[in-house]
Amino acid sequence: MTLTDTRSLTGAASAENIVSFDESEVVLEARNLSVSYGGAPAIEDISFQIPRNSVVAIIGPSGCGKSTLIRCFNRMNELIPIAQISGQVLFNSQPIYSTAQDPTEIRFRIGMVFQRPNPFPKSIYDNVAFGPRINSLDVNLDEVVERSLRRAALWEEVKDRLKDSGLSLSGGQQQRLCIARALAVEPEVVLMDEPASALDPISTQHIEALIRELSLQVSIVIVTHNMQQASRISDYAAALMAGEERVGRLIEYGANEQIFGAPKDPRTEAYVTGRIG
Q1: What is the pTM of this model?
Q2: How far apart, in whole angstroms, are the C-alpha atoms of residue 222 and residue 111?
């Protein structure tokens, strides 16, 4: 198959190219999920499940809708006035776009870590304590801050400077602070949109090790362009592709060893081996 032929294949995945799980194992699920901006489709008819306590990587070339997809999982796309969303996202079998669901609560239960570290202009302590405070959680804040910083592998580096600004930390430390801030409200899922793309190699190693450790307790969905990173840290990977019409579709979803070792779809193979992208 030629490069041009591969790019022209824009259909969605066939059923046998999508791994499925028992309902009891699933924490998040997309069903026929589509998003458009101002009437222009961005992703179309995406359906797949995310199991508990796992790392799921969302991979694919630039412009295929990876960030759009991940932002559907905690209603972040609703903050964009021209976004239109159809289909369903289920969290613990409940539709998150129901009018009965509070978007703010959803965004704490399904946390988000962005591409560039974005600590608040507050102290390290107050960054981590932010979520429990605004949610009026009946917790010991000192204990929550220490536990969250330990889970983010940052406590030993900052325990003697908790009153310092979060902005005084290095880039890698700031990203781990943002992870600690997300963990402070005990989410079940953490979404990560290229969390290491702005970091140096050493900081990237810290983030990758942290992701693997955290997946023992929470589910992690990560968008990454780095195929080596995706293959190192993921349990499962979902491959998206967009053709000339620039509409992202899910072409394959499977276990790490399948996607990176023996992909079923030739488009997945072309992408993970670097022939397209």
Answers
A1: 0.91
A2: 12
Q: How far is CA 8 from CA 1, 46, 127, 250, 253, in A?
A: 11, 19, 47, 15, 20
Q: If you search the block for the tokens 């009026």, which residue do you land on? A: 136
Pull the structure tokens for residue 29: 């699920």
Domain residue spans of the chain: 3-7+25-272
Q: Give ∠ CA 110-239-208 in degrees, rounded to 5.
A: 55
Q: Retrieve residue 85's tokens.
A: 């969303």
pLDDT (tens digit, 9 = 90+) per residue, 89-132? 999 999 999 999 999 899 989 999 998 999 999 999 999 999 99
Any idea which architecture 3-7+25-272 has in CATH? 3-Layer(aba) Sandwich (3.40)
Signed CA dihedral, 234, 108, 51, 250: sign only: negative
In contact, 182 and 163? CB cutoff 8 Å: no
- The backbone region for 36, taken as left when phi is positive above 0, alpha when psi lies in -120 to 50, beta otherwise, is beta
